[in-house]
Amino acid sequence: MSTPHLNFINGEWLAGNTLAPNLNPSNLADVIGEYAQGDAAQLDLAVRAAETAFPAWSTGGIQARSDALDKIGSEILARREELGTLLSREEGKTRAEGIGEATRAGQIFKFFAGECLRLAGEAIPSVRPGIGVEVTREPIGVVGLITPWNFPIAIPAWKIAPALAFGNCVVLKPADLVPGSAWALAEIISRSGIPAGVFNLVMGRGSVIGDALVKHPGIAAISFTGSVGVGRRIAEACVQGHKKVQLEMGGKNPQVILDDANLQQAVELSVQSAFFSTGQRCTASSRLIVTEGIHDAFVEGVKARLAGLKIGDALTAGTDIGPVVSQAQLEQDLSYVEIARSQGATVQAGGQRVACHTGSGAEGFFMAPALITDSTPEQRINREEVFGPVASVIRVKNYEEALAVANNTEFGLSAGIATQSLKHATHFKRHAQAGMVMVNLPTAGVDYHVPFGGRKGSSYGPREQGRYAQEFYTTVKTAYTLA
Ligand code: NAD
Question: Has this prediction a pTM greater than 0.85?
Fold first, then answer.
């Protein structure tokens, strides 16, 4: 049996109560490793260590912070192929996608290595003579970070890097389904020169570690990415505990295709954002809203493109779409295809479990991407997040109806439009009720140096990433001085 992967608390590797296996969704016989499962007492140890480390870390100088973040970023980038391979093995996105995600994690650490040197304040004249006013930003304390399974290294990175850059201490609770990438990142951080207690990793169940983290009085703020149901409960607990909170949750992202779109481009960007990474992206397009004149050609184009895709082992060269992450997620994806059918929609392609088309042919959670047509905005398939390779087409008359349907959702993360019309693109950018808007680009796929986040039921609190990350990870102080 391989060496177990332990929790990292106060600069030491500590065993949890039990161990849980990390399984490869492309090959159910492949156990990636055994990972510690902590309990509430261990979580308490981590929070106390972080509280103890906070005074020195938060005032200790930005050069040391910048150097540590830069070193972490450099190691991730140097090891991107190895880390990307591990990520694909545990999560199921293709190896190319896994390496892309690991690269992004490295770039994020490099970006925040610079950001900690740029935390500017303001000097403002007072309305009272002889007094100066300064507005500065200070760290908030110990932050609890709770992350989902679909971006096992990038999401921990885009929370850890700004938290540390701006002088906070961290307790990370990664998704229990994919602890491998977060553990590898913690191991890199453990050798970066960051003092004991500043960064802590506690793996384990959401209902145990996540719940204890959210309720711990030593935690000043929680940054959460995951499902709507868990996010809402976390928000309530944070309000009760007087904690700052940031939530990034689900999506039901619309991709509008107008008659004047470049057909080939519209097909490609829709297939890319709906089905690549197995559709397991919060920014994936799951509602394809298509005007009448291009509808049939678009559907035929998507079907033809899907027929050529290879579904198989995430680590095999030539695989286009890897497996669904778990048995439970696969069952959810398949059940939504049935729900769509039962409510009157047509399954044009895919929607069933399939054997591996590439690699060893091992047993895994493979599913043929499902294209659903004849769906209406009120059907469950167009209202609830599936979070798999399932997309439904809604036929509309014109741009005005397309925009109304796009906004007819409780979510608001990303929205896309494919059109040659500057007028419609400009109008859509202004009126799409989403945090991110894409013109002739997939709804999924964003830069690491600009804000990321949504509106309505998708997000709550300040934006993540880019220089906007400082809104959440700092608190403002106003100081008055009599000259
Ligand atoms: P999830 O809500 O089941 O779990 C997310 C994290 O919360 C995990 O670490 C889990 O262990 C933890 N958790 C579970 N119960 C908890 C509790 N009671 N208290 C505290 N923590 C708890 O989500 P998931 O299945 O891992 O991820 C999929 C979801 O994440 C989808 O809805 C997707 O849209 C969303 N997501 C959103 C974004 C975004 O930026 N908007 C990005 C990626 C994923």
Answer: yes
